[in-house]
# Entry
Amino acid sequence: MTIHDTGRRAFASDNYAGVLPEAMAAIAAANGGHQASYGDDVYTARLQEVVREHFGERAEVFPVFNGTGANVLSLTSVLPRWGAVVAASTAHVHVDEGGAPERMTGLKLLPVPSEDGKLTPDLVAREAWGWGNEHRAQPLAVTISQTTEMGTLYTPDEVRALGEFAHERGMALHVDGARLWNAAAALGVPFRDFTTDAGVDVLSLGGTKIGLLGAEAVVVLDPDRATGLRYLRKATMQLASKMRFASAQLLALFEDGLGVRTAAHANAMATRLRTALEAEALPGLAFTQDTAANAVFATVPPDVVERIRKRVRFHDWNIATSEVRWMTSWDTTESDVDGFVAVIREELESA
# Structure
């Protein structure tokens, strides 16, 4: 029974979109008969092989239910109980996970302000100090988001610089890859170019935002730095009994480049949105961040924001500055974008 308007579209989050048809098909194909539970199934075994093809022969994959769980597991696996993590002040682990990383495992987050959501070695250095000081939580990891919460993108060289900085100080590097597929599409390079080969130790591989249903993963790139995932996943309630259905969906993303193609489409729709609005030169509209993937950040007069939102839903980013975020998804169409542009134009011109 369908009880929602299936024709409604929004630009609030790629989480609003439904499930990729290929993901639904993967679930159906994995159904029927019996398979061993808790990851001892043929789909999870095949996923391990595919992940190593894309991330390197030492990579290990651990499917989980959600992105917060992936981040908590990843960070816990690289830290002792007295460890701390340097993160951008806008990082999802800091502002959007209800304190889960700190509540669940006792680690300490050390946020650093960043105008574009990206960290640099100089920014990390502001909190990477105090080793051996028993009064300070020990900074033993760096976490970055790829793409960032501000819609910006790290190049492979930028990731590599952070990896080198972290490793020289005995710190691990984690990537929150909730939108890693969008980053891969935007960069146009293989995953390992901006992860394994750039010094990333462990990453959270997103699935939900690209169109999967309850399927994310932790990918350990350096097993010497990230330990105990097999036990931590169970202890943090992220071990699925019928894991084959999560693994089958993740496999579908790797098959024939589906994940990257899907992300490239979402990215292209964000570019279409921004390009169209820039061409309009609308009064009161200004862009605040680069549109590197599938998010557009802009400022709009507060009264106009509410009028637009009554017609098409989206999120505020910074109410104090009237900054908003418009996000495209795997199922955003050109007509969706063009219709949204028309709404924004009408409301700004009537202000």
